[in-house]
Amino acid sequence: MIKGFIFDLDGVLTDTANFHYLAWKRLADEIGVDFDRDRNEALRGVSRRQSLMILLDGYPATEDQIVSWMERKNGYYVELLQEIRETNLLPGVESILQDIQSAGYLAGLASASKNARDVVQKLNIGHFLNSISDGYSVEAPKPAPDLFLHAARSLGLNPEECVVAEDAEAGIEAGIAAGMKTIGIGPMARVGKADIVLENGFDGITLADIIGKLLG
Ligand code: B16
Ligand code: MG
User: Of 141, 180, 167, whose CA–CA distance to 51 is shortest?
Assistant: First the structure.
């Protein structure tokens, strides 16, 4: 029986990927490392440290440099976040969150981002969320199931009562590993392992459509 929905943030509820890209690109240019939008795709849903490792791609760095570059990138990202408003919710998101609440299901957030609470506040969706799990909640990043299990526990639900919505391949793998049903947001090539794939996100999708597809 489905009792709750757990949402990833970046790529599912809003698209902060461009802000992450601009912040990483600024850092990469300063360090003198090649980085472009194609390479940025590999950072989808990936933790801040792991993102930097992918960006550096073997470029030598001390631990002090790693820490300082992560902080610098985050400063650039936080600057850009000041622009985020309710209008940055992806199409169909507000309506699905409203439907979930009205129908008496629980909703939780499970984002790898340490800035997730700030983004939630700027998007003005806190009143739709019964729990927030973020980059501070667990150690092991997706595809480990830990963040989604943290979200389920925070909602007071068993994993099999939860449905995860994710845009990253590692996120779908994490949802499956957690024993949850999964909704993949984006192309089949990326999220095809999910129980349902919504190529265009929640735009034009009702809660009844989702429940029907998951249970049917
Ligand atoms: P921060 P999600 C992820 O958010 C982003 O997709 C990823 O690009 C970012 O590196 C990660 O959060 C950590 O973010 O640097 O703000 O802690 O998709 O898990 O909502
Ligand atoms: Mg994501």
Answer: 141
pLDDT at 216: 79
CATH number belonging to domain 4-14+89-215:
3.40.50.1000
Give residue-wise pLDDT tens across range 101-131: 999 999 999 999 999 999 999 999 999 999 9
Ordered by start, the domain boundaries in the chain are 4-14+89-215, 17-81
Ligand nearest to C-alpha 133: 1
Q: Which H or E run contains 181?
A: strand 181-185
- Measured in Å, residue 51 CA sits from the centre of ligand 1 at 9
Which of 32, 31, 27 is closest to 40 using CA atoms? 27
Q: What's the pTM?
A: 0.95
Nearest to 131 by CA among 164, 115, 163, 107: 107
Interatomic CA distance for residues 42 and 144, integer angstroms: 17
Ligand with smallest separation from the Cα of 119: 1
Q: What is the pLDDT of residues 75-99, one digit of tens each?
A: 999 999 999 999 999 999 999 999 9
Q: Ligand 2 centroid to 166 CA: how many Å? A: 6
Task: Please name the residue whose Cα sits nearest to atom 12 of ligand 1.
Answer: 113
